[in-house]
Write a structure and sequence with these properties.
heterodimer; A: 256 residues; 4-stranded antiparallel β-sheet; B: alpha/beta; 2 domains; 11-stranded mixed β-sheet; 10-stranded mixed β-sheet
């Protein structure tokens, strides 16, 4: 489904390489986790894949279902089935969550040549999905992420995911800032969306999220590269020993 | 044979219009119609001619001449933060009327089909079951009466009979001068005096048409009233005059819309709106101003120099101004409230968008004279391109206006880094029992917000429109339903090309 080959990325503003040759292949229905210390390039990878300004891909490719992602605008990537759950979801004052969701869904449908959903049909979809995710109606009426708690913001991301039904979901440190209960709620939401036709890339610092969202493959990333890949047990090793041993093994100086 | 040519021409014209309409300003086409013009320039003779064209009584002519004689001694105001090119007042037509309007149509059926087609195309069909554009409601559910002003004349007013049943007078001002002289004499110039300012004085001398509304005591106007202004003729100024009187315990909601063709040369629009609000009555006045804003380089467009004022004369009188200012090359406009009656209330909700080379200096005046008066100002200014956008507002609480309150919220939004937003509040409080609050913010459309929207599938322009509509929400909510939908899409259209 998603195939990243030898991706090199530097910051546009300064001559600083962030990703130094990332290779990653995620098959349909698979859940991959990327772990790594601060500054390893995990979030950069999610931004580059979703098309944020400020990064320059100097080498390599990223292909989603045959679409050359790097050649597309962010909204085209979305319509092609890519979704990024933000680490820090953005507030949009004055724009109701419902309006936002409907505008987004209809923009994607339009881009794919599908008919736009009427207000009534949309309402039915949202109500059903919100109920499944245990999101109360009040949150749908409020402006996008404004005054939301950390947990509400992350659940709102999952709700968007449920409504937009992407093929490839990237979760960028979705666990950050969540207490144990909120993490369980969010994880339940993600697990409910697991499907043979939908893949996930879960970016996290901590193993504990992976107790809830069980990955098929775990990658350890540092210094802009994937150092090691393995099964869920790899996450447990990191949890127990930290990154220091791994970094030393691969000859990388520890980042403060 | 002639018929055939006509059809072919029509087809060609349509093609041209379609192409023209692909630009962002949808209303930039012009109606080809034979016009009668007064000679260019302004003199006492022109004032006499305008008065004669309208079959006005002597007292009206005298009133105009008095204004003209004062105007020639005046100079244009320069205090606004606007760069106004010198206007040659002798190079303007002060009167332009479609030839077909020479004999006044007695009903809409007699109006030139070309004129009716013009309004139809603008989304303002002059039929009596029709609603404003953008809304499809079951027939007869909600009706809006329209007075349509084309250049210097009113071409027709709908629903007059139905309104007359309720005792409401809704007609063109030229007709009111002839048919209801006692009302016009009593109220004209009583809110905006002839001497008020340069453009109001000019308007007093040369206004050619506009709307007149009288709601009798205790009557709630059975439908919304609206005036639609269209400038069509080239090098012509539009000087309309609107007079609205809500007698004791009356209520009316009034809507105003405006458009003009795309042209390289700038055109002057200097209107005056006077609203008289008696005891326990309420008037809502909403404007969606969409005059041609000029092109990206600031060529052409309308100079919108307008004086609008409401006078809450009686106790507990209420007025609410709502404006969405998206068009015009230059806007100079301060819809104001005189809160004379005790417990009277004034509200001002404004969205002003300036894109490309547009300039706007707009705001309000809240003059508290009566006891326990209340006012509320919510202004949302949006600047994009190389535009300059100024909020200028006065809150004045006089010594006798005890226990009065004002709340002002003034937000500016910047798109890009070449535009400007300015806030110039004047606050005068002359007693100790009143309270004034002023809040102001300036923000930029945030790249993170746009990126967030785009990762959800919206393109850049959709994203900007969404964020800006969110920014304006409080004001959009204050608009009547018909206008709110129109205004929302207008916000998006006005900002086309403002990013990227």
């Amino acid at each position: 489904m998603l195939e990243i080959k030898n991706m090199h990325v530097k910051l546009e503003e300064e001559d600083k390489a962030i990703l130094k040759g990332v290779d990653l292949t995620i098959g349909s229905g698979e859940v991959h986790a990327i772990m790594g210390p601060n500054g390893s390039g995990k979030s950069t990878l999610s931004y580059v894949l979703s098309g944020r300004d400020g990064y320059e891909v100097t080498e390599g490719s990223a292909v989603l279902d045959g679409h050359d992602l790097l050649d597309m605008e962010p909204e085209e990537r979305a319509a092609a089935g890519l979704f990024l759950a933000f680490q820090y979801p953005v507030e949009i004052p004055g724009v109701g969550n419902m309006t936002f969701l409907r505008t987004a869904l209809n923009a994607q449908r339009k881009a794919r040549g599908q008919e736009e959903l009427s207000a009534g049909d949309f309402l039915k979809v949202v109500r059903a999905k919100a109920k499944a995710l245990k999101i109360d109606a009040d949150m749908l009426k409020r402006p996008v992420n404004v005054g939301f708690s950390g947990g509400e913001k992350k659940r709102n991301e999952i709700l968007q995911m449920a409504i937009l039904e992407p093929r490839m979901c990237i979760l960028d440190e979705t666990d950050s800032g969540l207490d144990v209960d909120a993490m369980r709620l969010v994880s339940d939401g993600v697990n409910a969306l697991r499907d043979a036709n939908r893949s996930f890339l879960v970016i996290t610092h901590y193993q504990r999220l992976l107790d809830h969202i069980k990955p098929d493959v775990v990658h350890i990333m540092a210094d802009g590269r994937i150092l090691e890949s393995g099964g869920p047990e790899l996450a447990l090793v990191v949890e127990k020993n930290g990154y220091a041993d791994l970094l030393k093994k691969h000859g990388i100086a520890e980042v403060a | 044979m002639e018929q055939q040519i006509e059809v072919r021409e029509g087809v060609d014209r349509e093609t041209i219009e379609t192409v023209q309409n692909m630009g962002s300003y949808k209303y930039g086409w012009e109606t080809e119609i034979e016009m009668d013009y007064a000679p260019k320039g302004l003199s006492e003779d022109i004032v006499r001619l305008i008065s004669a064209k309208n079959d006005e009584p002597e007292w009206m002519l005298d009133w105009r001449l008095k204004a003209y004689r004062r105007w020639i001694t005046m100079t244009p105001p320069t205090w606004a933060l606007l760069d106004i090119p010198k206007i040659d007042f002798q190079d303007i037509y002060y009167y332009a009327r479609p030839k077909s309007m020479e004999t006044r149509p007695t009903s809409l059926d007699e109006v030139d089909p070309k004129l009716l087609a013009t309004y139809e195309k603008l989304g303002i069909p002059l039929k009596e079951q029709a609603l404003l554009a953008g809304v499809t409601a079951p027939e007869g559910e909600r009706q809006v009466a329209v007075d349509a002003v084309f250049d210097s004349v009113s071409v027709g007013t709908t629903f007059r009979e139905k309104l007359a049943e309720a005792g409401v007078i809704f007609c063109s001002i030229s007709e009111a001068i002839r048919e209801h002289p006692e009302l016009v004499k009593k109220y004209l110039g009583s809110v905006v005096p002839q001497s008020d300012n340069f453009y109001a004085t000019l308007n007093s001398a040369v206004f050619s048409d506009g709307s007149f509304v009288y709601i009798p005591p205790g009557v709630k106007c059975p439908m919304e009233l609206s005036t639609y202004f269209r400038i069509n003729a080239e090098n012509t100024g539009q000087f309309e005059r609107t007079l609205i009187i809500a007698d004791k315990g009356a209520y009316v909601s009034y809507l105003e819309g405006c458009t003009a063709p795309k042209r390289d040369t700038a055109q002057l629009h200097a209107a005056v709106v006077e609203i008289v609000i008696e005891e326990d009555s309420e008037v809502k006045y909403s404007t969606v101003q969409n005059w041609f804003p000029g092109d990206e380089d600031g060529k052409g467009g309308i100079y919108n120099f307008v004086t609008k004022r409401a006078d809450c004369r009686g106790d507990r009188a209420k007025v609410m101004w709502t404006q969405v200012e998206t068009g015009s090359a230059i806007t100079w406009k301060y819809p104001s409230c005189l809160l004379r009656g005790n417990d009277s209330q004034g509200e001002f909700y404004s969205i002003a968008i300036a894109n490309n080379m547009q300039q706007a200096d707009t705001g309000t005046k809240m003059v508290h004279l009566g006891k326990n008066t209340r006012s509320r100002i919510v202004s949302k200014g949006i600047s994009a391109g190389r535009a300059q956008n100024t909020y200028r507002g006065l809150v004045s609480i006089h010594p006798k206006a005890t226990d009065s309150r004002n709340y002002t919220q003034c937000d500016s939004l910047l798109i890009g880094d070449k535009c400007g937003a300015h806030t110039v509040p004047y606050i005068e409080v002359k007693n100790n029992s009143s309270r004034v609050e002023h809040e102001a913010t300036t923000s930029k459309v945030d790249d993170d917000q746009l990126f967030y929207c785009r990762t959800r599938g919206m393109d850049e322009e959709e994203a900007v429109a969404l964020v800006v509509n969110g920014f304006c929400r409080e004001v959009l909510q204050a608009l009547p339903m018909e206008f709110a939908m129109e205004a929302q899409s207008l916000v998006a259209i006005s900002l086309e090309g403002s990013v990227g």
